[in-house]
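User: Can you help me understand a structure? I only have the sequence.
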Amino acid sequence: MRFLLLILFGGCFFGSIKAQSTAYVFQGGLSLGTQKWDNSFDRQVLLASHFALAIESVNNDEDRSSLFIQMGYHVKGSAVRFLFYNVNSGLPGSNFTTERFEFRNLSLILGAKQKYPLGNNERARYYFFAGLRGDYTLSTNLGELPNAKANPAFYPFEDGVRKLIGGVSLGGGIELPLGEVIGAELKVSLHPDVTLQYRQGPINNVINPNFPGTTLSISERRIRNTTLEIGVGLRLLRKVVYVD
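Assistant: Let's start by predicting it. Here is the structure, written out as tokens:
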């Protein structure tokens, strides 16, 4: 992993020198987060957001491939949705609640893009990309969940959160020119984690808050993120032209 990161970092640096120009992409959009919880209940999709800045190499002669580095803020996690029923009629009531499990991460991606012409516009491109990603967890909302104290066996603890996470990122999109040095970008990307976001070993003899005087056992829990992101971006080109 460290060796590949060094290769990508060096490629971004030396590639930008050869390419002469640099693009800065400011991006934001919708995040659809899911999680796999071992030994626990199924998770549902978390609707959240993300914001990122990418620096990309640009070849003035032929814009077919590039290397990039991206830093961004991403809310990952999952959700549980409750629909309460009327005990008298047995019909669904109007009280619908969503419980969000949020992990607010800072992500760094080092990757490469392969581009292809899009339509008759010689500067428009569609592309695919892949890269290595490292996350740092800034904060979570686990300590704010109202039901965690009442049902400790079913909720993760803040002490089990792993700060450093590794994963991969891949996806595709289109680049649309709006002027000589400005453009728009649409992107769809998938970000599965390779390492765990959360890991907690089994815990025995936990006081049961629902039945005072009794204890319960909490089984081992492991949580891993997968996030689908849909984003739009503003693409600014810093063009370097050499004149003899």
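Now, to help you interpret it: Residues 13-17 have pLDDT under 50 and may be disordered. The longest strand covers residues 92-118. Let me know which part you'd like to focus on.
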